[in-house]
Design a protein that fits this description.
Helices cover 40% and strands 13% of the residues. The chain is α+β, with helices and mostly antiparallel strands and 1905 residues long.
């Protein structure tokens, strides 16, 4: 029973305490005066009566009512019902109050004099019960009695109110009356544990909507701060009540203030969670709250701040809940679309709806918490049950361990309260307990069908409704309301009277006396056993992920364990990888613990070393995937096993498994140990009571049905019996339980010391506080955040990290165990004495254990280590040296699947081996860990210079479960090495490795790269002060620098943009010279530029070297000018070779000699160059031999050239300023180029306007007319709209669709591009050409202004007149342009990809081709990634522009490519154009020349783009050259018969251009190469012939030996111009990006290949008795080199030929000679044959069209593998078309080679015996009388001499005798010896006659001398 009202108060406005209009309330009267003992009087009520503040108002307001909630100190809630009405104040009172204020306020306020003022007065009722309506009625009645002056005394009414007593629960019905003729019925709820909500929940959903309320619900459960706003106080209270109701069965335990007074608003900044309501009046003050969720009830919004993340319900629960709620709140939604909706679907009445919503939430909690009782641990039964919840197990069994929401709820205070309230097994039960226990099955079956769930919810709603309204509604209420009259009359209303407190107190005392005499009410408590419901086990298999074919996996695990214990180690070893894979699944891990359990006898299982090893590995693997909370209980199951399995190490020393499985986070998680401890305690206590049960009730066994009694059931039974036991019995049970817990605590202290103390106690793992995520992987360490957090205080003070002494280890472990013991013992009620005993024991336990461990550690070191595979040494190149010794690592598979066995075949990776760092490469060599392929060798390597990204990773190896540190190294040769360091590698060693790698990757200076250091001692320090061999070069470079300084003294230097790394040996001024963006604004001093003044005579020869440079040979071939003296130079040649740049002063990045128009003097050039970026002015680089059109290259124009500074855009140009003269000279320059073209000079009448119209027909011959529209189409593609071209790169310069072709632009000056206003008009982004200003072009001899062409730009291309010169420029730069009325040249603006795009695209391409980890996301498939990289689109752009230029040149127009700085895209386009137009560049010599000329001489910045040195490291790797090679590869694929070189040649270049093995591709320009003395290295001075400085020499040499670079299908057509398809669909991914050869690493270093084979051949010389061996072997695509294993037929035949020749002792010919012979004989055969066979007729006739030739290619492709004959037939024939009239490439340049004419007096073949132990080899010998020497060559055609025997040293020539290994079948007399002062040479001629001839010739030479 309880009082309806505890206190009644009258609160009024306090006139005395007004502070500037802010009023206060004061309690006028309070009944009873004295506090009740059981409920003290709550303080501060006057604040809550007027939450917005006490104020006086000018008019009377209607009476108001609301209920505020106050929480007292015992966290009991007091409900304060406030009834407020307004009373008029008489003048006197006010004046009195104001008079007292006059002292402070000078003037009397004259505001309130005229009108009457009203003050609030509140009647407040304080109660423990929440009966809002009853309170409203009672207070209303008191007010009515007062207002209507009823005859009842107020004291009686108040007295009755305070003495009314009603039951709390039980569903009774009470009628109460206050003695004023009123009557009310109060219904109490049946079960007071269920909240009473009235209609508040339904109201809340109506105000905020479903999703908002769900948000608030989740926020409240996960402990966020929630603030309600409304202008109605009662609604705030209802909303808060509603929110609390739906949280049932959880109770909200934080701050709960439904109505917060304005004065207390600072409460909102409290750090704890809360639910608070505030009047909207204070909305502005709530704005700056950053972490509070604000729900506005009036506006229906919920505002969640950015920093707050609310975890929502897990799916599918969230969806199902929303569906159910909408079915209740909006039942019409379902049938809204029906054609015949049922007549009425009214939603139920509000109060029913309220209960239905609560039913949904009950159903929701039943699903969230189902089975929670199975995860309760009961750790004490008597005297009070102590219960703990095993969170991890619950989450694990529900398969929700990842779920954020549930984790937070289970960690929250509300759930802790839930456990302590509902945990006890013997108590009264309610609706929720019933739901969890008995309805789970039903909920499970129905959850997918909303209508069934709805029925269930309605049943629950009925029960909830019945609970609140146990009786049908009774119409017995009778409460007076104030009469209308009294409400309206405002005047002369009496004040609320002061009540007589004595009278009221009498009522109270009287009632109290009566209560004392009444008999006590006995409330029957219905306690009972709480049912647990079905266990969780079976609920999971439906939600949990069932591993595929898990039964098979479990079988594997069981078999493996059986093999181990039966000592069948080989079988076990084979199964091991499969077992470790299977252990990823939960079922397999549980199976493992069960199986191992069976092998434990009496807590012990002694194993031998290998068994122990395997078991430990399996345990580690099992534990490795356990999270730190161990939700599946696997660590818990293993805990007893790790202390059982052991091995004997020596006399009396045993090592247990726990010392090998400590590396897991689980063991350092406090929660895990607690849960383990509690579950063990529960088992022991259960056993304790089971024994007593068994003794007393054995006869019941049969009836119990054999079901195990759970601990909770036992406890409930014990609790029921507890009151019946005698005191002694009770005490005995308490004592027994306590000692059980205590003994377990000792046991756990031991267990924890086992798992926390490392085997080597010098390494303390607890002290390394790494977070959970990035586990430190130093061989023996980890820690979880729970420890890091909880132990932080104790470690701050200590500095013991790495080198902590063992005592520190002991201390930290002791502290950890102490904290554990304190916590569990306090919770489970262990006595203080016992606790103290424990604290003294723990250090001893730890110390003892440390001592045993020391012995074990000592012994375990003596164990023979596990056999690791031997480290294989890599073969190194000559001159390559190891920088660091081998480090044992594991090569881990990356995203490429071929090698991991996923594509079929055994997995080659992971492999175990070593990583080697050499001066040139990074090499991994090792063997696969999979025993099935253990004998293969895996090699992966890449040049250190190609490393693009290195990042640290932590790797878990599948075999031994340690997390290792690793590195992931990515190379731009499309290789990825992902390694994990073995535990034997110290982490500092790995660090040293990284440092060395960085040093080698980014040397200080280019001289530190491998190409320069090769052959020197492998020091990492780069010596700069090397003495230069070539003195003359040194002086040349010095002079260059001097003269450059002289000029630079008088130059205007613009802003620096690019500054390459400065080298240490340059002067500081030198770095100024590095400045490429130097624009000269004054006349350059002539004298400093003439040849004679600068170069002293000693340097003249260097100049001839410049002339010999490749470019000049090519210019002469093209007829672009000779270097004869200027006087004799014929004036009619249009071009000349200018030496203006011989000192590299005009343009640093250009070659020394340049082709310029004949008519342009050098001075002009020096002026023109300033308009171009980097001074790269237009020069001719190729001429079309048929149309004589020329190709020019230059950089783009300056963004704002120096010109711009001197000339305002609108200045009158009457006086030509200097800038004008520059642009005029530029025009002159372009005009000179145009006039050099024959087609221009033919049309002589070109200069007059009349001629202008007539000639354009005659100039283009018929073929041009045919081609015209085609070019138009091409142009449109290149420049066209977004949608024309797949993957165009819009730079957005002129709007997306602007098809801009600026009308021709004669004056390409710095100005032309920049200002949109001024002379040259503008092109607006509209996509049309704006009308040009009329004064355009007035400078051109006063011609009238041209027609402005306003039409769409396409029309421009279709006009018949083609321009003589097209300028390909960058769209972004050509904003304004000047129209040339004669249309002699025209600007084609295109969009170019800038280097940043190339760089990013390449990164993405690498990630696509060589992903670092396997990709599960289908959106990230290879093709998708390839597309996103946009690499193909970039190739398409470059090829497309190149094809356009080729077309233009072929139709007779010249083209000038002037893009970006003229050294990236320009170089690509210009090179491709020459390659496509001129067949010469498709031969070996031609391609080399093309690269040397366009890429090396014209200054492509190889070092900068390749990030080869420390200085360019930041700029990153940009593969512009690789992009060019890829384009060539695409063309090669489309025209395979046009190229002399094969695809392999391109891959070879692609690999070595980044490898730094050769010097060819180092440095940024010829200037830098001269400066380092690299440019003209004398061929003769090569000290170590095996080290090639130039990649070209290397290729030549290799090509002589083997046809690897040769394309057998080479059969070019005359003067063929190639026009490849360029659309992305026609392009293929280059296999260079994808291929990998794990057997030998990349195949581009040929010396390595040969050596590896030799090593392989030498080994199998043991006699093999195993019978005939098969010659077949498996070919794995990613392991073997396919070209080697399956060579093409021709190579094979050539090799067979060579080996046969060697066997017969004949001298073998070069493969090329054999090949050429074959071709010629084939040719003659074809002539003889009258009917050619199919393949030869198809392929031989050289006038076939391109289409038919490409058919031949398909034939060849399909034929290669299928049958050697066909392949041979078509390949041989395909390539044997001779080219009439073309000189063979070898003779082509003989006229330029400065080889001395050799005087050969006698020559022939001799066999020569090599040095010691070398074989006899046939060589071509030449006896040279003039030089007095005997030279020998490898073959007759060889140009390079292999060796020289000086005849001066020869002492005698005598007949010799055959020695070992001499050629067979040769008569003895054919041998003779040549004795020199140094050694004896043994020779052998073909026969004795020949030998005699040789001896005579040598003898005669000697005697002549």
């Amino acid at each position: 029973m309880a009082r309806l009202a505890d206190y009644f108060l009258v609160v009024t406005y306090d006139l005395d305490k007004r502070v500037e209009g802010e009023g206060q309330g004061r309690i006028l009267q309070r009944f009873p005066e004295k506090d009740w003992e059981d409920s003290p009087f709550p303080q501060g009520i006057e604040l809550f009566c007027q939450p917005s503040g006490w104020q006086l108002v000018p008019e009377r307001q209607p009476a108001s009512f609301f209920v505020a909630v106050l929480t007292d100190i015992n966290s009991d809630r007091n409900y304060c019902a406030c009834f407020t009405f307004w009373e008029g104040l008489d003048r006197l009172q006010l004046q009195k109050a104001e008079a007292s204020e006059v002292d402070e306020v000078d003037e009397e306020p004259a505001v309130v004099q005229s009108a009457q003022v009203f003050a609030p007065k509140s009647l407040v009722l304080v109660s423990r019960l929440d009966y809002t309506e009853v309170f409203r009625n009672c207070l209303g009645l008191i007010y009515t009695v007062h207002v209507d002056s009823l005859s009842v005394p107020l004291e009686t009414v108040v007295g009755n109110l305070l003495t009314c007593i009603i039951p709390i629960a039980g569903g009774s019905q009470r009628t109460i009356t206050l003695g004023a003729g009123d009557r009310q019925v109060i219904q109490t709820p049946i079960d007071d544990s269920l909240p009473v909500s009235g209609t508040s929940v339904a109201q809340l959903f109506r105000q905020l909507g479903i999703i908002n309320v769900l948000c608030l619900f989740c926020a409240a459960l996960t402990e966020h701060k929630i603030l309600f706003l409304s202008s109605s106080y009662q609604r705030l209270t209802d909303a808060c009540r509603g929110l609390l109701s739906i949280m049932f069965p959880l109770k909200y335990s934080f701050t709960y203030v439904p109505i917060l007074p304005g004065k207390l608003l600072e409460v909102l900044s409290t750090p704890t969670p809360f639910i608070i309501g505030v009047n909207s009046f204070f909305r502005s003050e709530t704005q700056e709250l950053l972490d509070v969720i604000i729900a506005d009830l009036d506006g229906g919004t919920v505002t969640i701040p950015e920093c707050v993340h609310i975890s929502l319900l897990p799916e599918p629960l969230l969806q199902q809940t929303q569906t159910l709620l909408s079915m209740i709140l909006d039942p019409e939604l379902e049938i809204a679309d029906q054609a015949f909706p049922p007549p009425s679907t009214q939603s139920s009445a509000l109060k029913i709806q309220d209960k239905e919503i609560r039913g949904v939430f009950l159903w929701l909690f039943a699903r969230l918490f189902q089975g929670y009782r199975w995860c309760l641990h009961i750790i004490r039964i008597h005297p009070e049950p102590v219960i703990r919840f095993h969170k991890a197990a619950f989450l694990g069994q529900r398969a929700l361990s990842e779920d954020d929401f549930l984790m937070k709820v289970l960690d929250g205070m509300a759930f802790a309260g839930f456990v302590s309230e509902r945990g006890p097994p013997y108590r009264a039960t309610d609706l929720f307990d019933d739901l969890i226990a008995n309805q789970v099955e039903r909920i499970r079956q129905e959850e997918t069908c909303p209508h069934k769930v709805m029925n269930h919810v309605k049943e629950l709603a009925e029960q909830l409704f019945k609970n609140e309204n146990p009786y049908p509604a009774v119409a017995m209420h009778k409460v007076q309301r104030p009469s209308e009259k009294s409400q309206t009359t405002t005047q002369n209303q009496t004040q609320f009277p002061t009540l007589d407190d004595v009278a009221v107190q009498l009522f109270i005392d009287h009632a109290a006396a009566k209560l004392k005499t009444a008999p006590p009410v006995v409330k029957v408590e219905l306690k009972g056993m709480v049912p647990s419901g079905p266990p969780l086990g079976d609920t999971v298999d439906r939600n949990g992920i069932v591993m595929a074919n898990s039964a098979r996996r479990l079988e594997v695990v069981r078999n493996c364990i059986t093999y181990i214990f039966e000592n069948k180690m080989l079988e076990a070893k084979k199964l091991m990888p499969a077992v470790l894979r299977a252990l990823k699944g939960r079922a397999a891990r549980i199976c493992l613990t069960q199986e191992l359990n069976q092998h434990v006898l009496q807590n012990r299982a002694v194993l031998d070393d290998q068994q122990f090893d395997y078991i430990v590995r399996m345990m580690n693997c099992t534990l490795q995937d356990c999270s730190h909370m161990d939700e599946h209980g696997i660590a818990a199951n293993l805990l007893p096993l790790v202390t059982a399995f052991c091995r004997k190490l020596g006399a009396g020393i045993t090592q247990f498994a726990y010392s090998c499985v400590q590396e897991h986070m689980v063991w350092t998680t406090m929660q895990f140990w607690e849960a383990m401890f509690y579950s063990d305690v529960q088992n022991h206590i259960r056993a304790l009571y089971l024994e007593t049960e068994d003794n007393s009730s054995e006869q019941q066994d049969g009836s119990a049905g054999g079901r195990e009694i759970s601990a909770l059931d036992l406890a409930s039974e014990q609790n029921r019996l507890w009151p019946t036991l005698s005191k002694e019995m009770q005490a005995e049970r308490v004592q027994k339980e306590e000692s059980t817990v205590f003994s377990q605590a000792i046991h756990y202290a031991n267990r924890m010391s086992y798992l926390l103390l490392p085997l080597d106690t010098s390494k303390n793992r607890l002290l390394r506080s790494a977070g959970l995520g990035d586990v430190e992987s130093v061989s023996n360490s980890y820690v979880t955040n729970s420890i890091a957090g909880s132990m932080a205080e104790s470690y701050d003070t200590e500095s013991g990290f790495e080198d902590a002494e063992s005592s520190d280890v002991a201390n930290s472990v002791v502290r950890f165990i102490n904290r554990f013991v304190d916590k569990v013992c306090n919770e489970s009620g262990v006595t203080n004495e016992h606790l103290k005993a424990l604290h003294t024991m723990i250090p001893d336990i730890v110390q003892m254990h440390i001592e045993t461990l020391d012995a074990v550690h000592r012994e375990s070191k003596r164990l023979p280590p596990i056999q690791k595979p031997k480290l294989l040494r890599p073969t190194l190149l000559p001159g390559e040296e190891l920088v660091m010794d081998a480090m044992r690592v594991h090569l881990i598979p990356d995203g490429r699947e071929e090698a991991t066995g996923l594509m079929g075949g055994p997995p080659l990776l992971p492999a175990e081996g070593a990583i080697f760092l050499t001066t040139y490469r990074l090499i991994f060599r090792g063997t696969p860990t999979d025993p099935l392929v253990g004998e293969q060798v895996v090699t992966r390597s890449f040049p250190i210079a190609s490393l693009t990204k290195e990042k640290r990773i932590s790797v878990t190896l599948p075999m031994d479960q340690f997390v290792q540190e690793g590195l992931q190294l990515r190379s731009c040769t499309f290789q990825l090495i992902k390694i994990a360091f073995d535990e034997e590698v110290a982490s500092d060693l790995a660090e040293v490795f990284r440092k060395h790698m960085h040093k080698l990757r980014y040397p200080q200076h280019v001289q530190g790269t491998f190409a320069f250091t090769v052959g020197q001692c492998g020091k990492l320090v780069v010596e700069h002060k090397t003495k230069d061999k070539n003195q003359s070069l040194k002086t040349l470079s010095k002079n260059l620098v001097k003269s450059a300084k002289r000029t630079i003294g008088r130059q205007y230097v613009t802003r620096k943009k690019y500054s390459p790394p400065t080298w240490e040996n340059r002067s500081s001024f030198q770095s100024e010279m590095d400045e490429d963006e130097i624009s000269v604004s004054e006349e350059v001093d002539q004298s400093s530029l003439t040849l004679s003044s600068t170069i002293r005579s000693s340097d003249r020869q260097t100049m001839s070297n410049v002339v010999e440079r490749a470019c000049c040979r090519d210019y002469q071939r093209l007829g672009l000018g000779t270097l004869s003296n200027s006087l004799t130079r014929s004036k009619n040649e249009p071009f000349r070779i200018s030496t203006v740049n011989r000192m590299y002063t005009v343009c640093r990045s250009y070659p020394g000699l340049l082709i310029v128009p004949q008519s342009i003097p050098d001075t002009t050039i020096q002026r023109i160059c300033r308009c171009y970026r980097q001074n790269r002015f237009p020069v001719v680089c190729w001429r079309n031999s048929r149309t004589k059109a020329v190709l020019l290259r230059s950089a783009g124009l300056h963004a704002k050239g120096v010109v711009g500074f001197f000339k305002s855009p609108n200045a009158p140009s009457s006086v030509p300023s200097q800038a004008d003269s520059t642009s005029l000279e530029q025009e002159k320059y372009l005009q000179a180029i145009i006039s050099s073209m024959p087609s221009y000079s033919e049309s002589s009448g070109r200069n007059t306007l009349s001629g202008f119209t007539s000639t354009h027909m005659s100039t283009s011959d018929s073929s041009d007319k045919l081609r015209q529209p085609k070019i138009g189409a091409l142009m449109k593609q290149v420049m066209g709209t977004k949608e024309d071209v797949p993957g165009t790169f819009s730079r957005g310069a002129l709007g997306q669709r602007a098809k801009v072709i600026s009308l021709s632009q004669p004056k390409v000056s710095g100005k032309a591009r920049n200002p949109p206003r001024g002379k040259w008009g503008s092109i607006r982004g509209s996509g049309r050409l704006s009308a040009y200003n009329p004064d355009v072009g007035t400078r051109l001899a006063g011609k009238e202004s041209p027609q402005s062409n306003g039409g769409p730009s396409e029309a421009l291309f279709l006009r018949q007149q083609k321009a003589y010169l097209y300028i390909i420029g960058d769209k972004a730069q050509l904003k304004g342009g000047k129209q040339d009325s004669f249309q002699q040249w025209e600007v084609v603006p295109i969009e170019v990809c800038d280097v940043r795009q190339v760089k990013n695209s390449f990164k993405k391409l690498m990630k696509a081709c060589v992903p670092s980890s396997s990709i599960s996301d289908p959106n990230m498939s290879f093709l998708r990634c390839l597309e996103e990289s946009e690499w193909m689109a970039l190739l398409h752009r470059v090829l497309q522009v190149s094809v356009l230029v080729v077309e233009l040149l072929d139709t007779g127009s010249s083209v000038m490519v002037s893009l970006e700085d003229g050294w990236d895209v320009t170089t690509q386009v210009v090179s491709l154009v020459q390659l496509l137009s001129d067949p010469y560049y498709r031969t070996f010599d031609g391609f080399r020349l093309l690269v040397e000329k366009e890429w090396l001489s014209f200054g492509h910045r190889f070092s900068h783009r390749g990030a080869q040195t420390l200085g360019s490291q930041s700029s990153g790797f940009t593969p512009v050259f690789l992009q060019f090679l890829d384009c060539v590869h695409q063309i090669h694929l489309q025209f395979p018969m046009e190229f002399e070189f094969s695809q392999y040649y391109l891959k070879f270049l692609a690999y070595h251009y980044v490898s730094n093995r050769f010097r060819t591709f180092l440095l940024d320009s010829d200037y830098e190469r001269i400066e380092l003395g690299v440019l003209y290295e004398e061929k003769g001075e090569r000290k170590s012939p095996q080290v090639c400085k130039s990649v070209w020499d290397y290729i030549d040499r290799l090509n002589k030996k083997t046809p690897i670079f040769y394309n057998y299908m080479f059969s070019p057509e005359d003067e063929e111009v190639l026009r490849p398809y360029t659309f992305i669909s026609n392009l293929k991914v280059w296999d260079f990006y994808m291929e990998e050869t794990l057997s030998e690493g990349p195949s581009y270093d040929w010396e390595l290949r040969g050596r590896q084979e030799r090593v392989a051949e030498e080994t199998p010389e043991k006699p093999d008795s195993s019978g005939p061996k098969s010659h077949r072997h498996i070919v794995w695509p990613c392991y073997d080199s396919l070209s080697k294993v399956v060579p093409d037929a021709i190579t094979k035949l050539l090799q067979d030929l060579q080996s046969l020749e060697a066997e017969l002792g004949q001298t073998s010919e070069k493969w090329k000679d054999t090949w050429d012979k074959m071709k010629n004989s084939q040719k003659t055969e074809i002539k003889l044959e009258s009917k050619p066979s199919f393949s030869s007729s198809l392929l031989m006739s050289s006038n076939l069209s391109h289409q038919r030739r490409s058919q031949g290619v398909y034939l060849q492709e399909s034929g290669v593998g299928s049958s050697i004959n066909l392949a041979l037939d078509c390949e041989a024939s395909a390539t044997s078309t001779p080219v009439p009239g073309r000189p063979s490439t070898s003779t082509l340049y003989s006229q330029f080679q400065s080889t001395e004419s050799e005087n050969r007096s006698f020559e022939g073949i001799l066999f020569k015996k090599g040095a010691l132990l070398k074989p006899w080899k046939p060589r071509w010998f030449v006896l040279d009388k003039t030089k007095h020497q005997l030279r020998y060559y490898e073959t007759r055609q060889d140009k390079e001499c292999k060796g020289v025997i000086e005849l001066a040293d020869v002492e005698s020539v005598i007949p010799g005798t055959p020695t070992m290994g001499a050629p067979k079948n040769i008569e003895e007399k054919a041998f003779f010896d040549l004795k020199t002062t140094k050694r004896v040479y043994n020779f052998c001629a073909q026969d004795s006659l020949n030998a005699q001839l040789w001896m005579d010739s040598v003898q005669s030479c000697l005697s002549d001398a």
